[in-house]
Design brief:
single chain, 275 residues, alpha/beta, 434 Repressor (Amino-terminal Domain), Endonuclease, Chain A, 2 domains, 6-stranded mixed beta sheet, 11 helices, 6 strands, Cro/C1-type_HTH, Helix-turn-helix transcriptional regulator
């Protein structure tokens, strides 16, 4: 049975899906019939209705042409509300809203920072506050958006989280000694979950210096997806060549990882040095 992520019933994406289902059923159309008009699959229409897939602009425009705007419902306006939501860049939303919540396995590598899913609120807040020209309200929006992502860890059937981090991450000061102690305490706590594995990678590993990335294995035979970060704009793709290249890089980095029990000892030792 598919795991449906916890969703905010008041969000425009949930409203989009609910209105689509209501109007489709009122018109006595099947999901397959709507899919043919949108130029997609029945599964994609199902995911739109369940709010596990974000609509595209063309989806919204075609639905408005199909159903009109009964009762003042406009899919185009709902789409505009979805993309206007705060909390992160537009390019990253497909990952946060569609891929990460439905992934079976998330494998990540980070050469610079504790990965977002494992960050404490204080650690994340300090990171976001360093962005040029960012306002305090924008910092809080991004912090809360990052904290909401962590809900997948509390699901009845959470994804398997396999984390690789460079050893230097444990000693890179973010927000001061107290923030670092709390952050490493939290990492050690999360590492006790049976679905989470954290390994520290030797500083001699140069393969991963090109940047952080995550590989998502998805259910139901869907292709793997990757999220690769950069200093400008990141990339989210299921392109086979890109995914294969990232898998090869991940496996090369993993060869430099310390065993999990040794990694946790290293994290504990690093934590004790933040005084």
């Amino acid at each position: 049975m598919d795991v449906v992520p916890s969703l905010d019933p008041g969000s425009p994406r949930v409203r989009f899906g609910a209105e689509l289902r209501r109007l489709r059923e009122a018109a006595q159309l099947s999901q397959a019939a709507v899919a043919s008009r949108l130029g997609c699959t029945q599964t994609q229409v199902s995911r739109l209705e369940k709010a596990t897939r974000s609509p595209s602009k063309s989806d919204a425009e075609r639905l408005d042409r199909l159903f009109g705007t009964p009762d003042g419902v406009s899919f185009t306006r709902l789409y505009q509300r979805i993309v206007a939501q705060p909390g992160g860049p537009v390019w990253f939303r497909s990952w946060v809203e569609e891929i990460e919540p439905t992934a079976r396995i998330l494998r990540s590598w980070d050469p610079l920072l504790i990965p977002g899913l494992l960050q404490t609120e204080a650690y994340a807040r300090h990171l976001f506050s360093q962005a040029p020209q960012i306002t305090s309200d924008e910092v809080e929006e991004r912090v809360q958006a990052r904290m909401r992502r962590k809900r997948i860890l509390d699901r009845d059937s959470p994804p398997l989280i396999l984390v690789l981090v460079d050893s230097g991450v444990l000693f890179r000061k973010v927000g001061g000694a107290e923030v670092m102690r709390d952050q490493l305490d939290y990492v050690l706590q999360i590492a006790q979950m049976p679905t989470v594995s954290i390994q520290v990678v030797s500083p001699d590993c140069l393969t991963g210096l090109m940047g952080a990335f995550t590989i998502a294995e998805l259910p139901d035979g869907q292709p793997d997806a990757i999220h690769a970060e950069s200093s400008a704009e990141g990339q989210v793709t299921t392109d086979l060549d890109s995914v294969t290249a990232m898998w090869n890089r991940y496996e090369a980095i993993r060869l430099w990882a310390y065993p999990e029990h040794a990694s946790l000892q290293m994290i504990q030792k690093a934590r004790s040095e933040w005084t």
